[in-house]
């Protein structure tokens, strides 16, 4: 025979008061028509409950919600890196700045104004929303391996 018992309601069955984090309350299993029904009670209402058909009871509490962990680096970190890499000539850093610019475009910190070619190199002109000026970013032709290398660098930064 298999029994299905409902989960806790996080509110008192009698007074309907919601249980805040870490509040102790009591739960009772009632045997009603060969089915177990769970009812939760605050400490104040425990003595007011109907004791008929109680099969079992126990004391429990609402668990504390875990603190929110920020999983990604803040936009300010990427924004600062983007600005610091502006005059870099090293190819890996140029690639890194381009990928960061894509992230900042997505976050609406930068806005694409135009693209142009010069000396067989493609550039994106981006408007910096925060500072109100334009900046150019080299748009590299990244191979699969280069994309993976830049992604790995960003992963290290984020973690």
Structural features, described:
The structure is a single chain. The protein is an alpha+beta fold and 159 residues long. The chain folds into two domains: 1-69, no CATH class; 75-158, no CATH class. 26% of the residues lie in helices and 30% in strands. It has three helices and six strands, in the order βββααβββα. The chain has a three-stranded antiparallel sheet, with no helix packed on it. A three-stranded antiparallel sheet has the order 4-5-6, with helices on one face. Strand 4 (110-118) and strand 5 form a beta hairpin. The longest helix has 16 residues, at 91-106. This is Enolase. It comes from Candidatus Scalindua japonica.
């Amino acid at each position: 025979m298999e029994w299905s018992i409902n989960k806790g309601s996080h509110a008192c069955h009698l007074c309907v008061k919601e249980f805040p984090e870490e509040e102790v309350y009591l739960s009772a299993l009632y045997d009603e028509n060969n089915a177990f029904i769970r009812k939760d009670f605050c400490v104040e209402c425990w003595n007011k409950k109907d004791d008929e058909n109680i099969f079992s009871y126990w004391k429990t509490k609402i668990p504390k919600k875990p603190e929110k962990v920020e999983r990604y680096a803040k936009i300010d970190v990427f924004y600062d890196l983007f600005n610091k890499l502006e005059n870099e000539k090293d190819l890996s850093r140029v690639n890194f700045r381009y990928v960061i610019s894509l992230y900042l475009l997505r976050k609406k910190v930068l806005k694409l104004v135009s693209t142009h070619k010069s000396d067989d190199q493609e550039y994106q002109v981006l408007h910096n929303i925060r500072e109100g000026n334009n900046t150019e970013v080299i748009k590299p032709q990244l191979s699969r391996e280069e994309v993976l290398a830049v992604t790995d660098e960003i992963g290290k930064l984020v973690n």
